[in-house]
Prior knowledge:
It is a single chain. Helices cover 47% and strands 16% of the residues. It has 607 residues and is an alpha/beta fold. It has three domains: 15-72; 81-234 and 391-535 and 573-603, P-loop containing nucleotide triphosphate hydrolases (Rossmann fold, 3-Layer(aba) Sandwich), CATH 3.40.50; 242-381, no CATH class. The strands form four sheets. Strands 3-2-16-15-12-4-11-10-5-9-6 form an eleven-stranded mixed beta sheet, with helices on both faces. Helix 20 (469-477) links the parallel strand 10 and strand 11. Helix 6 (173-186) packs parallel to helix 7, helix 11 (298-312) runs parallel beside helix 13 and helix 11 packs antiparallel against helix 14. It is elongated and about 140 Å long. The protein starts with 14 loop residues before the first helix and ends with a strand. Residues 1-5 have low confidence and may be disordered.
Amino acid sequence: MAKSFDWENPWRPNIEAKMAAVWGGAATATLMIGKYMPVPIPMKFSAIAALVCTGMAAYRGIAAYNRFVDSSRLNNSGFEFMSIAELAQKTEEAKRNKSVWLGDGFDWTDIEAQKMHSMIGLGIAKTIGKSTDAHGLNGAYWLHGLDEETDRFMSLDNLVGHTGFVGTTRVGKTRGMELLIGQAILRGECVIVIDPKGDHALQENMKRICEKIGQSERFVYFHPAHPERSVAIDPMRNWNRRTELASRVAALIPSETGADPFAAFGWKVLNDIVNGLVATGVSPNLAHLKQYIEGGADNLVLNTLRHHFIDHVADWESRSSGFVKKHKDRVLEAYIDFYKQIAIHEAQSSDLDGLISTFEHNRDHFQKMVASLIPILSMLTSDPLADLLSPTAEIGGKRKSTDMAKIINNSQVLYLGLDSLADGTVGSAIGSIMLADLTAVAGDRYNYGIDSIKPVNLFIDEAAEVINQPTIQLMNKGGGALFRVTLAMQTLADLPARLGDENKARQVMGNINNLICFRVTDGDTQEYITNGLPKFKYKSITLRYGHGADAHLQDEYKSSYQESVNEEEAPVIPPAILGELAPLHFFAKLSGGRIIKGKIKILQDEE
Length: 607
């Protein structure tokens, strides 16, 4: 006896509709025959028979309707929009479940994967027709019709594991991040957005959301191309150890290995100057560093020596007067000589030793060694960045000044545009040093406890423009400081191209627990995303017909019919399908292995 199977092709013709029509016709015919035809059939029997046929028609009709609904979902629905008020409703619903709204869609399981493989096997054009792009969308939008879409949510706890958006240009990465950004603002949390390309819609929506909830003062705007509207942000204001400031700037020095002598020498010079500034009671900023590296540190060394003598050397003025006379009133040389011969035995300072050695270094060699550092400082201190990145505390100043610690502590919403399209080098440097500053703030939060502080949501669009070693540290250890990092990139190759190291790129991807993938055309990226997904048993049906006649025996004829279901291992999401996603459509691979097929809506103001 042949074995029966409980599986059938989900895209076969809607036979149930024909069967429902036949049963309906049978019910009508039975009634008509009993009433009008001269046959010995009691009307009561005809009614019962018609009722049975009607029941069967309804049974088959329901099955036909469900199959019709399944097929109709494959039609393109086009772009969808939502207002800020609608996003606020979604946010409130998500807050009750301690989750975040990702968009409309459904959980992707082996059931949906089976439907997808079956359609591909039959032929997409054969199943849904060749005119599959009625609304002008490119891509396999039919994937979203494999199940009924509902609101899809992700646990808020997953965000601490960091999130990555991957997709080629113009497919919805920024719009997807915008929905997460809007929800974070509506939750009252700190939001920091680093946007290299400067998306006008993004920053306008961030501002509008703050205004809609009556908290317009939370919005902070920074953009080098619009200094008249920008606040000043000092990326050197927050630090735990002075060496961090030197590392923050030295990380911008171009280096293939990160450990070449030019980078090391640049770090030493920066650290010596920072130590001198701190010793004299001056808060280091980028303008100070450029001033003393490019113009010489004579005044800084002199002031540092005086402060050291005042604090640690008794009667230093009279004791050093002989050295001043000896050097013929060259005060700086006299104080250095006094320190080396007298003061060093009473109160030696390693910071002062380093600053003096930097000052006395051969000037020609010094200029060669800092040749790659000076352009970086020049970029970050040229107009209008001198005012934007190195603000001075002037009483009555018109420009507002802040820093990352203030923004975070006040739960503000910062839009940090980098203008990388106009000047990619400067934009990249600004983004990198701001990320280093954020890492220092995260370290401070981690060291001094996080019992009463709110999460920090950091969004980095076009991450390959700005990501650096401090960003990796922030992702590695920032979870303990309640930092939620969200990166957007086009391909995985962007990361090693930026970081200069394949292993560092893997560090970044290893820290991303939630990956939201829009259309990806790069083969290596497709393989990376799908390699971590499980396989499933794909079923397909095979039909065989046979017939034959024996030429030696009259009337001997044989025929056969065979039906079999085959199972083979197949990917839940084939790599190539990621290259066919329609704009705004995505696959989300969340922490714990959950997979979502979703579609986002475009956020726009009610007006």
